[in-house]
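S1.2 Input.
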Amino acid sequence: MHISVQAETFKLAKVFTISRGSRTQAEVLTVRVERDGHIGWGECVPYARYGETLLSVTAQIEALGAVSRSDLAEELPAGAARNAVDCALWDLDAKTAGVRVSDMIGLSVLGPEITAYTLSLDTPEAMQAQAALNAFRPLLKIKLGTPDDMPRLEAVRRGAPKARIIVDANEGWSAEAYSDLAPHLVRLGVELVEQPLPAAEDHALLGLDRPVPLCADESCHDSSSLIDMKGKYDFANIKLDKTGGLTEALALRDAAQASGFGIMVGCMVGSSLAMAPAVLVAQGAAFTDLDGPLLLAEDRDHFLKFDADGVHPPEAALWG
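S1.3 Output.
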């Protein structure tokens, strides 16, 4: 077995801004695993919020020897490095066996899933214009998390009066801010709020009235996160770069559902290769947020198909 890793950059269609900062490109790592003439591949997006860099994640991957999916969790912690390797191994095993990954995990029926489209943080006027341009999309996700969020939210609703809306505060609020905003969120038809408080401070959510359901993002990494989420959140946002790949993402989905949490499947800003395995996890999810490729100016060959029905499962030529 030979494992290689390569840094790649994809230009964004426009500047993408959240409460932590802005970016103009997606920086990813592409992992290839070769065995017996077959090559499997996967992609990850190292995330500074979790102490990851391109260099640190590359070093984790390059330190690996021959490894299988069953023992990968013993070699790498949950995170971007394990994600890319795990997904590459799933792709490799499927190619070796001549089957699809969906068959390997027991998904007999696959279909498109409506995905959120993200409007990045900007002035109310600019966000209203963004919303108007994308009002045809059934589900919009609004990046917020500032002291001046209400004008932005009102502006988006004016721009897209019929779209469903979810909000991502990116740890930018307090419990008091959420409580103050909640009646307005209800009035404007917001269906879900992601990570309103910093993960280290989300104990303040215990016992809080939640008229708009809350979804754990930075507070939800893998199955071990679920215990601490109880009483604070209603949904779990499953991202493969947090779980450490498809293997743990599937386990987290099942465990979260068994614990009474709703499921959201999200992503970092990456290419279709990063989204492909997540589309399998998203089958039947209450909320899907796999719009990464829609934010890019360029993508992989055999990119994912997006249309009025949502994001479609990957072709074999892309992954799985």
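S1.4 Remarks. The chain has a mean pLDDT of 96.
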